[in-house]
Amino acid sequence: MKTHMLIRRFAGSFILLSLVLAHYHSQYWLWFTAFVGLNLLQSSFTNFCPLEIILKKFGVGGCCCESDNSGSSCCEK
């Protein structure tokens, strides 16, 4: 599975989980929702995502780009 797909799943899951926790436990969980949203926003401008680094260290995910017509992949470069 590609890294960008995993990041989107993590972000969506964290946002939904924090909303449920805010509803049933404490409204302070909304700060976590804001953190995830701000991290997604900054990564769209900077192309820096801490979760991507963590996933790579664990060897999870793959290359975010498709291979070109020559058959090579950006993961091989």
What does this protein look like?
This protein has helices spanning 3-24, 30-46, 50-57. Residues 71-77 have low confidence and may be disordered. The chain contains three helices and no strands. It has one domain. The protein has 77 residues and is mainly α.
In short:
The chain has helices at 3-24, 30-46, 50-57. The chain has 77 residues and is mainly alpha-helical.
Number of domains: 1
Q: Distance between the terminal alpha carbons, to the nearest Å?
A: 19 Å
| Model regions low in confidence, pLDDT < 50 over at least 5 residues | 71-77
Biggest sheet layout:
none
SS content category: mainly alpha
Counting DSSP H or I runs of 4 or more residues, the number of helices is 3
Share in β-strands: under 5%
**Overall pLDDT, averaged?**
83
Radius of gyration: 16 Å
Could you say which overall geometry the principal axes of the C-alpha atoms support? globular
Order of helices and strands: HHH
Count of extended strands: 0
The share of residues in helices is 55-70%
Question: How would you summarize the topology of this molecule?
Answer:
Elements: H1 3-24, H2 30-46, H3 50-57
Helix pairs in contact: 1-2
Task: Quickly list its features.
disordered C terminus, mainly alpha, single chain, 3 helices, 77 residues
